[in-house]
Amino acid sequence: MRVLLVEDDDRLAGALTTALARHGHEVERARLAVDALRLAGGVDFVLLDLGLPDMDGLEALRRVRRVSVVPIIVVTARTGERDVLRGLRSGADDYLVKPFRTAELMARMEAVARRGTRPLPVRDQVVAVGDVRIDLETRRVTVAGRPVPLTRREFDVLALLAREPGVVRSREEILDAVWGDPLLAASRSLDVHVAGLRAKTSRPGLVETLRGTGYRLGRLAAPGPGPDPGDGGPEGSGAP
User: Fold this and answer.
1) Fold of domain 126-217
2) d(CA 66, CA 120)
3) How many beta carbons lie within 10 A of that of residue 39, not counting itself?
4) Closest by alpha carbon to 51, among 39, 60, 41, 64?
5) Which parts of the chain sit beneath pLDDT 70?
6) Which class for 92: exposed (0-12), middle (13-18), buried (19 or more C-beta within 10 A)?
7) Do the beta carbons of residue 64 and residue 70 sit within 8 Å?
8) What's the fold here for domain 2-115?
9) In whole angstroms, what is the distance from residue 67 CA to residue 39 CA?
10) Is 233 left (phi over 0), alpha (psi -120 to 50) or beta?
11) Whole-model pTM above 0.90?
């Protein structure tokens, strides 16, 4: 496989490059996140350190995931539970803490490769579900052609589900991505925002709840009556 090694430590990068080459892999190394973003689309696998000099590795991971399904294993010294959760929720296929044995890395790479690729993220800026239109670029939502004002977080929750329709997002994943804290799982805030989405769009099936699992974008069939244009709510999608 063609492996992109994103690591700014020369000594570790050299050792990993030698080990990977010994197992038949072709290695390309990047020291900076900006180079990783440029090269990730042309490789078969990515090994990503989080402590990069120009950008936090988690942000680089999220940016890659917006456009690519390339397998990614985070290879880092960060050992905290929250760091692991953030890495996996941001799109990593696995999380390996330094120091580690080469044999373990190879085994994990093989396991990730066997799983196959994840669903490709939506590339179109407008996602249609029944008569609901979600414009990811302009942050606008319409139902039957009528604009539906949403709060910033309501839209962020909906956009997260819309980027990969059919993929179930756990409560912790949504809380991490939208609120920035996966440990708020006991909070009712997410339930309130989901209820707000259903009420404002008048489409209860727009966000589907899978008990004990999470949420996903629903599949709306025949459109019902649109929302009352006089009941758009007090906030726009850009409101806090």
Assistant:
1) Arc Repressor Mutant, subunit A (1.10.10)
2) 9
3) 16
4) 60
5) 116-124, 181-187, 221-240
6) buried
7) yes
8) Rossmann fold (3.40.50)
9) 12
10) left
11) no
